[in-house]
Amino acid sequence: MTRRCAILALVAGLAIALSPVSASAHKPSDSYLSLSIDGQEVTGQWDIALRDLDYAIGLDSDNNGVITWGELRAHQAAIAAYAFAHLALETDHQSCTLRATGHLLDDHSDGAYEVLRFAADCPAAPAKLGVAYSLLFDLDPQHRGLLRVEERGRTHAAVLSPAQNTWTLGDSSLGRWRAVLDYLREGVWHIWTGFDHMLFLAALLLPAVLQYRSGRWVAVATFRQAFGDVVKVVSAFTLAHSITLSLAVLGWIAIPSRVVESAIAASVVAAALNNLYPLFHKRLWLVAFGFGLVHGLGFANVLAELGLPTNALLLSLASFNIGVEVGQLAIVAVFLPAAFLLRRHWLYPRLVLGLGSCCIATVAALWLLERSLAIRLLS
User: Fold this and answer.
1) H-helix or E-strand spanning residue 330
2) Tens digits of per-residue pLDDT, 230-263?
3) Backbone phi and psi for residue 231, each to the nearest 5 degrees, phi listed first
4) Fewest C-beta in 10 Å: which of 21, 31, 288, 290?
5) CB hemisphere CA count around 247 (13 angstroms)
6) CB within 8 A of 244, min separation 6: which ones?
7) Which residue in 147, 142, 151, 187 sits closest to 167, CA to CA?
8) 307 pLDDT exceeds 80?
9) Average pLDDT score over the chain
10) Local structure of residue 310 (DSSP, 8 states)
């Protein structure tokens, strides 16, 4: 019975990991809210995904699956009304009045976004500006609002969620620690919802309870051996992505997002195929380190769109890295005991490792085609 439960757990885990095969597998639903404070004047820009707006208020008037610029223009007033109904700014407990000043269209890594520019008429200079955010929370609890505030040459940032939907401008250490906690949660959240990272990690973990001998995979003798291999793989991946993430966020290296996302998809394909045709079966940690450098650039693209607070730059960067590591360790803690229990069962090398790696390689190959050729193959 215990072994049967472990089989079901592993198969269910693979099914969950492979189910959300979207072209934007790297990003969940986010919006980007930027505020700029200059004396009593507050201006803002709010980037909201067209797919989210279409889901919330309906933009595709003719239901042909394509949102045109004409349809977007026809819904500008409705977009502004919907957005402002889910955002509140206040100074000293007095509400600011929001008004739209422009509508644009922009492309992010996961599709087209409405760019809503606006101004806030506040009764006083916003030394203690308060922000309350509730966009899409009633429709998608996984949605996040990525807030960035520019004020007197300083950058403040926060991640707004249903559990933490308010933010207040302040110079205290409490504000810095709030940012640290936000980035810690965002790191955990990103590894759990970044399906390309998840599948790469899964491809590396699947053979952890096996060893390649005489042309076939056989079970390892002890849990200690499997655990040691996993520690090496996860540590190498963490070290590598921490290096490139830090270098990219600090502006020392810059690679186009399209190249990075394509390389990440290629790394998932390579890791999965290595399970089927093993070339690196003794030192998988080297594979994890090499491709981890690429994945770190992907993490950096997420932070680049959010922005890091200047008053807690290094703390927030370290916090995001720690969050990613915590997320990885949680995955390992669930996967490894079940995999070790099943390692001698004939289903593991054939179904879990073999079929699982085939599925991972197939999905990642489609991502690679989409990202490198800018085409859409998956819904």
Assistant:
1) helix 313-342
2) 989 989 998 998 899 888 877 788 888 888 889 9
3) -60, -40
4) 290
5) 16
6) 253, 292, 293, 294, 296, 297, 300
7) 147
8) no
9) 82
10) G
Q: Where are the domains of the chain?
A: 2-26+194-373, 30-180
Q: Which residue has the tokens 């807690």?
A: 312
Q: What is the DSSP letter of 280?
A: S
132 pLDDT band, cuts 50/70/90, is very high
Answer whether 0.70 is exceeded by the pTM: no
Asked whether the beta carbons of 67 and 87 are under 8 A apart, the reply is: no
| Helix count and strand count (H, E) for the chain | 12, 12
pLDDT above 90 (res 135):
yes
Beta partners for residue 33, in sequence order: 46, 147
Q: Distance between the two ends of the chain, CA-based, in angstroms?
A: 38
Q: Where would I find the H helices in 114-253?
A: 173-193, 195-205, 223-249
Residue 9 clears pLDDT 50, i.e. is over it: no
**Residue 83: which of 98, 64, 67, 66 has the closest Cα?**
98
Nearest to 317 by CA among 329, 295, 302: 302
Q: Say if residue 351 is exposed, middle or buried (CB neighbours under 10 Å; 0-12, 13-18, 19+).
A: middle
